[in-house]
Amino acid sequence: MQPCSIYKSKEGASGVITDTDITTVAAFSALFNDVRISRNTIIRTDAAITVRLNSVDSDAISLAANEKMEIDWLMVAKIFVTAASSANLKIVVAR
Q1: DSSP of 61-86, one letter per residue?
Q2: Is 1 domain-assigned?
Q3: What pTM does this model have?
């Protein structure tokens, strides 16, 4: 992972959502305010979810309950989440 100088960390419940820009969920609205494009992204979840990065047209990445995904191989500007039941998420973005 590359060293970063600015980060944001947000936690909250997703609710039941489909291909939703996570910043439209109240708890995550300020996620990308200071970090417009993330070089290092970490997503933790307590329920099964799928994630699409940067576009809803991107292929979905599945995360099982109690999994963590670390992304240091792609610049991330948007995160789209699908949750069949509400998931508690912790998302860290850094640049």
Answers
A1: EEE-TTEEEEE-SS-BS-EEEEESS-
A2: no
A3: 0.94
Number of domains in the chain: 1
What 3-state DSSP class applies to 71? strand
The CATH code of the domain that includes 27 is 2.60.120.810
Write out the two tokens for 41.
Answer: 């992204």
Residue 2 maps to a domain: no
- Give the Cα separation of 66 and 89 in Å (integer): 10
Q: Is 31 among the domain residues?
A: yes
> What's the pLDDT tens digit per position in 27-39?
999 999 999 999 9
Tell me which DSSP letter residue 80 carries: E
Q: Which residue has the higher pLDDT, 4 or 56?
A: 56
25: tokens are 């969920």
d(CA 44, CA 50): 12
Residue 64, domain extent? 7-94
Enumerate residues 6+ apart whose C-beta is below 8 A from 77. Answer: 32, 36, 37, 38, 54
